[in-house]
Amino acid sequence: MPTAPPHTERTTSERSQVGNVEITPENAATRLRLLAEASEALASSLDAKESLRRLARVVVPSLADACVVDLVEGDGLRRLTVTERDSRRSPRILPGGLLPEVDSSAATLAKVLRGAGPMVMTDFGVSDPDDALLAAQRALYRVLSARTALIVPMRMRRQTLGALTFIRRDPDASFDEQEQVLAADLGHRAGLALDNARLYALQQHTSEQLQRSLLPDLAGLGHLQLLARYVPAREEAEVGGDWYDAFRLPDQSVILAIGDVVGHDLEAAVRMGQLRNMLRALAYDSEDHPAGVMSRLDKVMQGLTRIELVTAVVARVETPPGRPWRLHWSNAGHPPPLLAQQNGRVLLLDGGLAPVLGVDPDIRRENASVSLPSGSTLLLYTDGLIERPGEDIGRGLTRLRQHAAALAREPLSVFRDELLIRMSDDEQYDDVAIVALRTP
Questions:
Q1: DSSP string, 46-74
Q2: What three-state secondary structure class fits 338?
Q3: Percentage of the chain surpassing pLDDT 90?
Q4: Which candidate, 57, 257, 268, 314, has a CA 20 to 30 Å from the CA of 111?
């Protein structure tokens, strides 16, 4: 039979279909073991790229001498990883990078990405200088000493997300039909993992943006030295229900509030917005003391919403002219506010404490009060600032007091930013919200 023109990769051994085959007992155990290991690699992380790198390391050398992972990015491709077995049968990783646009008419990889399905190659022809992708593929095959290549798509929701290329160096070791079925299955599983990771990232981004949009703009309180910050959780964590608020009442006093709605998902962020709006209405309409506002919020929350449990601190700052500022607050199961004075003294304001919102709307709640010395810093924060997995919360509070004391004389922006840096770790498992107020 005639061979394909030298500028193409298509050969007489290129096949576009994988038929239905019966798995023999001898190969069934090997296939199942490889599929199990591949599934574990793909499920090991919500970082899709890292999962695909692990998949490549699983299939080399059990299925192929090399595995290439290419991802579609816009009109082009990104070569995520090239994992190969060297002469000592040890896996090694070659550098990847961007590839030319997928507009090649001859490159088998481009055909697979356009929907041709799994394809096998045994004769790679000669590069065409006018076909950038074909030239890049030919160079890769030459570096890997490829004699046989099997390319399968990573496809999901009728969209091709990328491709896996399995390469063998032995000219007598072609991919039989069972191995082609196995490779196609791996491509399907990789596509599913990649699609799930992208959907998760989209949901996480949407939740985070929603949460940020629901947090208040403090520009209307420019007469106060008041700063806030929301920091989302890092590695593989969903958005939380952390929230804060600050607004002026008709009598010119100011309400500060912070809390945490139970849950780590989009619904928690939505409920956080509902709760903040209810608090604003109740506090502004009644001008009640914080304990009264907290009790009314508890009743309305349990009567009109599906919000279950909430921790919160509601505080009222009175700023009478010519007299010391005064703070009144009520605490519903939340970490205590902190007051850092310029002389280095740091207080945890543990008064006014009662159970969380959502337990019993008839719980009696009390106010606590304290004078705010000149130049002192009041800090409200959520538990993500002080809690670490497996660590007693008392250690986190001690760490917070030490850092706050060291930063008490710094400008408020430095106090806030440096405190977040010193209290954070590499993981940051939970969201963090803080509100810092500096008295004149």
A1: S-HHHHHHHHHHHHTTTT-SEEEEEEEET
A2: strand
A3: 47
A4: 57
Provide the 3-class DSSP secondary structure of residue 293.
Answer: helix
Walk me through the domains of the chain, giving residue ranges and CATH numbers: 25-203 (3.30.450.40), 215-438 (3.60.40.10)
Alpha-carbon 41 to chain mean position: 19
Spell out where 265-354 has E strands.
Answer: 310-318, 325-332, 338-340, 346-348, 353-354
Closest by CA to 183, choosing from 174, 194, 195, is 174
Contact 241, 263 (CB under 8 A): yes
Contact 164, 68 (CB under 8 A): yes
Q: Given its phi and psi angles, is residue 162 left (phi above 0), alpha (psi -120 to 50 degrees) or beta?
A: left
Q: Is the peptide bond before 335 cis (omega within 30 degrees of 0)?
A: no
- The answer to whether 225 and 438 are in contact (CB under 8 A) is yes
The pLDDT assigned to 211 comes to 66
For residue 67, the cross-strand partners are 83, 166
Cβ-count burial of 142 within 10 angstroms (0-12 exposed, 13-18 middle, 19+ buried)?
Answer: exposed
Tokens of 404: 């706050």
Any idea what the Cα angle at residue 108 is, between residues 107 and 112, rounded to 5°? 125
Place of tokens 């947090």: 215
111-158 residue pLDDT tens:
898 888 899 988 776 666 678 888 888 888 988 999 999 999 999 888
Residue 17 has pLDDT above 70, yes or no: no
Nearest of 203, 166, 171 to residue 185 by alpha carbon: 166
Supply angle C-alpha 220, 410, 259, rounded to 5: 50
Structure tokens at 288: 């009640």
- What's at 341, amino acid-wise? Q
